[in-house]
Design brief:
This protein is mainly alpha-helical. Helices cover about 65% and strands about 0% of the residues. The protein is built from 11 helices and 2 strands. It has helices at about 5, 15, 25-35, 50-60, 85-110, 115-165, 185-205, 225-270, 275-285, 290-305, 310-350; strands at about 165-170, 180. A two-stranded antiparallel ribbon has the order 1-2. The radius of gyration is 64 Å and the shape is elongated. The termini are far apart.
Length: about 375
């Protein structure tokens, strides 16, 4: 580092000894520190003379073209100079003051807030979750219970329809106790057995009872300990609701599986009505064509209903009615045919026309055998 003594070797009091200042020595020391300023000039190219500069200027003037400045577009409007608006400045100042005041008030409130306020927010959040969970559980529980009631009602209706379609009064008999078979006994027994099996399986599924509604105890919201106890109670309520919801979901899955299996079995049994309708038509060939078509349509309706719900029960009853109408019409046709035969016999009797009998060939009696005639000898031949 260069010291002042090195810059000024003759000392600070040199003016007392001599009035002559060593400029060369000072310039040399400054050059050593900061470098020679003449080095910044580019001396590699010669400087242009005054005569050459004058020549360049004259050439530029001779070749100069008038410069044109494009005018601004006619539609452009000159921006008006903004004027000082004291009202806006005052409003901005008031807004700044309001923000500052709000920040100060918020800071004061945060400083004076109770430590239990944050804990109470957690408690309220848990209570909101409890309310949603309770509503979801009750909604699912009610839907599943209503579905079970509807399933029992449909099963009872189908059982009644099948039992009523087993037989029907015989329209061809005067005896009121005489009946005709509508449904095949094996088919009817199979439907009833499936109804009973499904009902027993559904009843075996136990649904969880609803959880008691959550009610918060009276607590001091400024007490950390009381709010903490309330949070523990809320968490326990949530855990109980989660367990009950999981159990309810499991029960619903079981019921849905049983219903699907029941529907598949009933669909297979319903398909048997097609052959049953064809057999009924073949057994009553003299019934009118619309009645035969009605039996075919009723059997198809049973198949399409798959014996499910109220539609299946109604389809079985409609099939029974169609078959009864078919048999009744067949019995009427047979009765009319028999009545026509009786009238024909009565007409022949009134006209005294004997009933035609099969022709027989006359029987010729055998003649009785006769003794051959006895020949008498001649008279002359017996004398000697």
């Amino acid at each position: 580092m260069t010291t002042l003594a090195q810059l000024f070797p003759q000392g600070p009091r040199i003016e007392e000894a001599s009035t002559t200042f060593d400029d060369h020595h000072t310039v040399r020391r400054l050059t050593e520190m900061f470098g020679d300023p003449s080095d910044d000039f580019d001396m590699t190219r010669p400087r242009a003379s005054v005569q050459r500069l004058s020549q360049l200027v004259e050439e530029a003037v001779a070749d100069a073209a008038p410069a044109t400045i494009p005018a601004p577009p006619a539609s452009a409007k000159r921006r008006r100079r903004r004027r000082f608006d004291g009202l806006a400045v005052a409003a901005a100042s008031l807004a700044i003051v309001g923000v500052a005041t709000a920040g100060i008030v918020g800071g004061v409130q945060m400083a004076n807030a109770s430590p239990a306020d944050g804990v109470m927010q957690s408690l309220r959040a848990d209570e909101a979750m409890i309310q949603n969970a309770e509503q979801a559980f009750m909604s699912a529980h009610d839907r599943l219970s209503a579905k079970a009631v509807a399933s029992e009602a449909n099963a009872a209706a189908l059982r009644t329809a099948v039992d009523g379609a087993r037989t029907a009064p015989d329209p061809r008999s005067t005896d009121g106790a005489a009946t005709i078979a509508i449904l095949d006994a094996v088919l009817a027994d199979g439907i009833i057995a499936e109804i009973d099996r499904h009902a027993a399986a559904v009843q075996a599924v136990v649904l969880p009872e609803p959880v008691d509604p959550y009610v918060r105890d009276d607590i001091d919201e400024d007490s950390l300990s009381e709010v903490g106890v309330a949070i523990d109670d809320a968490q326990a309520q949530l855990a109980e609701l989660d367990a009950a919801t999981a159990e309810l979901r499991e029960g619903r899955t079981k019921v849905e599986d049983l219903d699907a299996q029941h529907a598949t079995t009933l669909e297979g049994l319903a398909a048997s009505f097609t052959a049953l309708g064809i057999e009924a038509i073949e057994e009553n060939p003299d019934a009118e064509a619309p009645l035969r078509d009605a039996v075919t349509a009723a059997a198809a309706h049973v198949v399409s209903s798959k014996l499910g719900g109220a539609e299946g029960a109604a389809a079985v009853t409609a099939y029974r009615d169609a078959v009864v109408a078919l048999v009744t019409d067949q019995a009427i046709t047979e009765e009319e045919r028999a009545e026509a035969a009786r009238r024909e016999r009565q007409n022949r009797q009134q006209n005294q026309e004997p009933d035609p009998t099969p022709t027989e060939e006359p029987v010729v009696p055998n003649p009785e055998p006769t003794a051959p005639p006895v020949e008498e000898p001649p008279v002359g031949d017996g004398l000697l």
